[in-house]
Sequence to fold (911 residues):
Amino acid sequence: MLMKTAEAASRTPMPPLDFTEHRLANGIRLLLLEDHHRPMAHLELWYHVGSKDEKPGTTGFAHLFEHLMFRGSRHVGPEQHMLYVRQAGGVVNAYTTFDQTVYWETFPSHYLERMLWLEADRLAALDVSESNFLREREVVKEERRMHYENQPYGLLAEDILDSTFTVYPYKHMPIGSMEDLDRASIDMVRDFHGRYYVPGNLTLILAGDFDTHEGIRLVDRHFGSLPPRADPIPRVSAIEPPQENLRELRKTYPMAPLPAVAGSFHLPPMGHPDSYALEIASVILSSGQSSRLYRRLVYETQSALSASGQAYLLEGPSIFFSFAICNYGRDAADLNRLMQEVFLEMKENPVSEEELLKAKNNVVRDFIIGRQTLEQRAGFLGKMAVLRNDPSLCQAELARYQEVTPADVQRVCRHYLIETNETRLWVEPGPPPPGEEGIPQ
Amino acid sequence: MNALPPPPAAKREFSFPEHRSCRLPNGLTLLVVEDFRQPMVVLDLMLDAGSIRHSPASAGLSSIAARLLSQGTEHYSAQEMARSLDLIAAGLAAHAARDAFYVSMQTLQPALPLAVRLLAETLLRPLFEPEEMQRVILNQTSSLQIHYADAEFLAAAAATRLLFGAHSYGTPADGHPASLARMSAEEVRRFYSAHSRPENACLIFSGAIGFAEALRLAEDNLGAWTGGRSPGAPTPPSPDGPGQRVLLIDVPHAVQTQIVIGQRCIARRDPDHLPLVLANQVFGAGFNSRLNLRLRAREGLTYGARSVLQMDRLGGSFQISTFTQTGKSAQAVGIILELLQEFVHGPITARELEDAKAYVIGSFPIHNETPGQVADRLLSSALHELPEDYWHTYRQKLEEITLEEISSVIRKHIRPEHCSIVAAGEASAIRSSMRDFGEGVLLAASRFDPTREDLFLSADPHPEPGMSYH
Fold:
């Protein structure tokens, strides 16, 4: 019954993702996805600018800028954007990654025009005072302390990326450094807005309860008069040279209670033919309690509290990231040895048909259960449109995973999961505080 | 471009999805929400076996029982169960909260019959073998070590412990390494077999399934479920929490202080629930709340500040939390206390009430977008024994709340003088400035064990010589 059910699950009919693409005269790309099941809609604005576009000495600025987008524009006061959305019964937020900055609102659909008006106003011009700029910079510094500096393993990604990349700007995290945040000034705001917050750099996605023609008309009404920018938008030109030797670093994190080991391996960008097999390999290694890393490191040997290894695919040169934290009383060198053994097995033998089916069902689940909400579907469309430059790819994407064979998985593991391609970070815990009596087992 | 936002278009109504329910002959309650938008089904089982059903000294018992359900059953070893669940991509998650114990699955529609069978296997035939128990205990102990090194967790756990004292609401459901070390597989087995009782369970299907099919699957797989004993009424926490008490938790190397200021509050079924929800919106929920506007937008002291009403079956709490760089800790606490005084003694404006209602009522459809969200609401009304039409009349009830009612519930339930103040951070840098808020006790993070009956406060106000301050 198990295999039969698993095969039936793999054939679960995929709900269609029917969208309309439209381009405004000024270059804004518009993607519309009607869904009338709930009287609600989701608006998402993807600006194709992220932390990789930051120049040296200005790390964290794309994200700080995202915060400033909520601190006042021509007709919207410093705290009003959030309030206007809230009064409509909507929710709102934004995020900045290495590649993109995304602003979104989810709201009762009869407020669609209000949301478009709000977004168009801050694309047209910001109006941020010096004092609000300085305060918001402090807010972002608290965000950095909260998510990175005051967490037991919070600095791990920052440390490992800094060594993984020598020149490519994925070398730094979107949050940036405190020093660079302190250097940021209000003068940089206008320049950044003028360079990246322009119609040709915007993809606007609208999903939910509206009529497509009416949606186009309303977007055009609010965004159509914004002038296009004449000069080309600057893009990253750095090329990361191939890594030739294992890079190893050791860090002591004083707040971390347990040793850990992390590894990052260079990968090609998302959409590369190898990327699908790499994601299938990630599922086989890390997803669920039957995954290979869980089984060996957590279950059988009880060496690790948690263990994972997966591809993080970005627009530019990407990484496979492995991370395991020791169980109490266990050793990180053992953990690393076990992890390398698991990788070696992936390289030496093809995965079984059953494991492959499991991984593909996992992908099917992500495509169905992971795309239930308007926000999830809009996010997927945005990724295809902005980072892959072709929204229609979303229709064929599932088939790319379905085509992966055991030989593909073996080949990509052999090619990428090798020591000379790895940067390895050993995390040592801080000394136990005075009076610590140890944890009983 | 217009200086004011365009008016809304004609509103489209939203009705909370209908559901059907019945009781199986063995007493199991079944709820079904038919929703065929996606070929998937959410399956949630709620059992009256939360941490309220064991003593605080056994903190973590219900949580360990939940984790062990899938780690070896009569017909499946732990790894066979994992293989089966993963192969059909049916995530199974079990966890214990205060009032109940939950086993949840999300499954692709063609895999539903097998998913229900696996769910029943975990619920009806777990073995709780010592070897699996030892694995789970080691894993959870290590995981708790990380939690107990995290200032955010410490501040929240300590505040909850102060408010509820030695009642089981005062201890984290996942326990403490010390309470896990005391636990035996036999104790877990006894606990689960006493509380695994269909009369005290509720199963919901939400998604691409009809009622008749759901009923058949429930009967076929869970119809033979018997056992357990009537648990009786749990003991509520004593009516009042402690008076104001200041607790500093020393987290060496912290660069930021986590602050929680809180007091005891009403249980979920209290008739003042909805007016308090709106009051909390005004004070500390959302970006535009008084709390966040002041601490974040106006002062730049934090990335986030909020207040939360946690209302459970036997009691609740009102807790304000934020974080700020070490040197600004006392300033942030001072502002929160000032805002609390204004909240209780000053007026709420008509505009504030209108905005709070607009958000809570207006966002109802967007917070019921998925089958899982709808299932959560229905389980919550089952847990708290709310009226059958509760979610259908919810928005109307909110609409009817007046300014007078809000002001009255704030004065009745929010008592700044009863608040406890907890700060978790670098104590040497904040202790002197925190003196302004009253007598306090300082405790090393490594000594914090919420499962100890005396905690550290009542028996000995100076647990670490030289570290207490007055």
